[in-house]
Amino acid sequence: MNLRGLVLIVLAACSGGSAAVIGDNERQSSRQLTGAWDATMSLARPYPLAFNASPTRRICGTIGFVDGRAQTDNGSNYESNGVYRLDLTRLGLDWLDDNRYPVALARQPMAATPHSAAADSVTIILNPDSQERILLLGRYDAGGIDGDWTAQSARGTASGSFSLRPHRERSQTVRC
Question: If 49 and its partner were Cys, which of 8, 27, 148, 155 is the partner (CB 3.0–4.6 Å)?
Answer without folding.
Answer: 155
